[in-house]
Amino acid sequence: MSAAGLVVIVLALLLLRQNLFVILGCVTGYAYFVFAGEPVDGIILDAWSALNKDILLSIPLYILAGNIMASGGIAGRLIRFMRALTAPIPGGLAIAAVLSCAVFAAVTGSGTVTLVAIGAVMYPALIDAGYNKRFALGALCAAGTLGVIIPPSIPLILYGVMTRTNIAELFIAGIGPGLLLTLLMVGYALWCNRRGDHEAWSARELLASLRDGIWALFMPVLILGGIYSGIFTPTESAAVAVVYAILVEAFIYRELQVADLGAVMLQTGRLLGALFPVLMLAFSLNMFLTYQQVPEAMVGWLSERITEPALLLIGTNVFLIMVGCLMDIGSAILVLAPMLAPLMTDNGMNPIHFGIVMVVNLEIGYLTPPLGLNLIVAMGVFREEFWTICRAVLPFVLLMLTGLVLIAFYPPLATFLID
């Protein structure tokens, strides 16, 4: 009866269109009070115990660094360099759009910020150059999701915290899949525009754009190089990213004023105000499930019924694709990672590899209706109808599904740098 009551409460909250914080709060409180017979104030104690981790400092710092970078002129400089680099290739502007999104994603760590910053500049340029509108929409929306997997990545940090997985290794493991998805999109852009016009290559423009954008291009090298070499930890790298972003924007490019910094910090605070209460409840629910040995019970139940690891992997991927259509990536990781990770590792899957597979699955959710975040953001950026954008991204969703299959069933794509 208690389980039925929980289902009724969740369904009622969904029908009332309550947000995830309210739903998680009710579920967690119900679990503590009804299933365990413990006082509800245990939620606060468990949440504090779970949140008392240095690595969580990296989340607000990476978000702040990304917002600082996005508020300046880095996007324009990256676009100029990529256009100069790809000018002699047929369809070079389309390839430059994908590469600009990939590099800017590595700088900011945010898919939606990348879509807004790069898309606002590249979409009119692609249309004016005669590119197909549907292709331009699809390419920018899809390439904007690369920030989810290319490090530094907030979803990878969340996965690492929720499953106690090494975040530095998750960052390193994200490089191979990020490059694979980028190359698939670049290859598709080249094939679609193979008869397109191209420009003469200019060494002078390439060197000028490189000199102008070198500080932006150096950001991911600094962060990943510092982590991989052991100079600083992922948490310390986030602080380095903030300091570097301020130095570049305020003193080198001179495009960040004190008033701008205040607005950026306020924007970051709003994002964190929405994220951390949900994170607190998710941690508390995770600790309750651990106390009650729910993940172990689920692993045992499924292991008795699914004895083939490949079949389990296929089923998990299908499930995560469906989840990505209905939940944002952060919420899905907070709720599902602590339950799915033990199940997959118990069946012989590397936890680092599964983290990458999970994030790539949910990354595709950015492009799938009804709640695809990049689809919704693109409506405002490009002023197009929702279903027009959905049709435009379909070929790129198929490309990303192809990449997902390769990443899921060929683990070295994610683990070769760690090995």
Walk me through this protein's architecture.
This protein has 419 residues and is mainly α. It has two domains: 1-40, no CATH class; 41-415, no CATH class. Helices cover 79% and strands 0% of the residues. It has 20 helices and no strands. The protein has helices at residues 2-15, 20-35, 42-51, 58-71, 74-86, 92-108, 111-128, 133-143, 154-163, 167-192, 203-229, 234-252, 258-291, 294-305, 309-326, 329-346, 351-364, 373-382, 386-409, 412-415. α10 crosses α17. The radius of gyration is 22 Å and the shape is globular. The N and C termini lie far apart (49 Å). The model has no long low-confidence stretch (mean pLDDT 81).
Question: Quick summary of this structure?
Answer:
By secondary structure, this protein is mostly helical.
Helix and strand topology:
Blueprint: H1 2-15, H2 20-35, H3 42-51, H4 58-71, H5 74-86, H6 92-108, H7 111-128, H8 133-143, H9 154-163, H10 167-192, H11 203-229, H12 234-252, H13 258-291, H14 294-305, H15 309-326, H16 329-346, H17 351-364, H18 373-382, H19 386-409, H20 412-415
